[in-house]
């Protein structure tokens, strides 16, 4: 039996993230991925095949997983009542928070819960269209699973992986790009957009800031902007000090 400490937990995460091919998607790549998933729905529906409903589900699942920075099983286990209002962001209506009930747990512990706040206005819109217009065509009565399957109450992990891989391969992305890439991209994009690192850490459900840092794959443009801002701030401070001595 291994005793879990902060240092060896971080090592395990670092090992998992150590493959240099594991990275965040750029915003252009992410948009292309979502567009490709949407286009699969349109193609299947145009051919008159039944599979457009599961394809639609998968396209929305990918967007929601990114929109809240969710792990694969966290996203899979969502139910329709898991969303609620954020009194500090009424513009999001009844989808201002996402209550994650099946977060990653330490070995031998129950799933960790956390509340993830909605940060992008498109996320509630995507959810509303799915839950109100399309999901009822696929879900059986009394089934609260957000992502029902045509053969089961809830879509399976293997099915999610297969659908993700199909879109990834269609775009010619490296096979190191997997479902977890959406979470990695969410964390990175929030940091690049200037969100407070502590807020990002809490959104991701990381106990330690070091774990969030391992997941962050900021672009060279972001590093250049950060350097420029730091240099400008230093120069401004130096000039102000010089003026004060005159």
UniProtKB/TrEMBL annotation:
<keyword id="KW-0233">DNA recombination</keyword>
<dbReference type="Pfam" id="PF00589">
    <property type="entry name" value="Phage_integrase"/>
</dbReference>
<dbReference type="GO" id="GO:0006310">
    <property type="term" value="P:DNA recombination"/>
</dbReference>
<comment type="similarity">
    <text>Belongs to the 'phage' integrase family.</text>
</comment>
<dbReference type="InterPro" id="IPR002104">
    <property type="entry name" value="Integrase_catalytic"/>
</dbReference>
<dbReference type="GO" id="GO:0015074">
    <property type="term" value="P:DNA integration"/>
</dbReference>
<dbReference type="GO" id="GO:0003677">
    <property type="term" value="F:DNA binding"/>
</dbReference>
<protein>
    <submittedName>
        <fullName>Phage integrase family protein</fullName>
    </submittedName>
</protein>
<dbReference type="InterPro" id="IPR013762">
    <property type="entry name" value="Integrase-like_cat_sf"/>
</dbReference>
<dbReference type="InterPro" id="IPR011010">
    <property type="entry name" value="DNA_brk_join_enz"/>
</dbReference>
<dbReference type="InterPro" id="IPR050090">
    <property type="entry name" value="Tyrosine_recombinase_XerCD"/>
</dbReference>
<feature type="domain" description="Tyr recombinase">
    <location>
        <begin position="20"/>
        <end position="232"/>
    </location>
</feature>
<keyword id="KW-0238">DNA-binding</keyword>
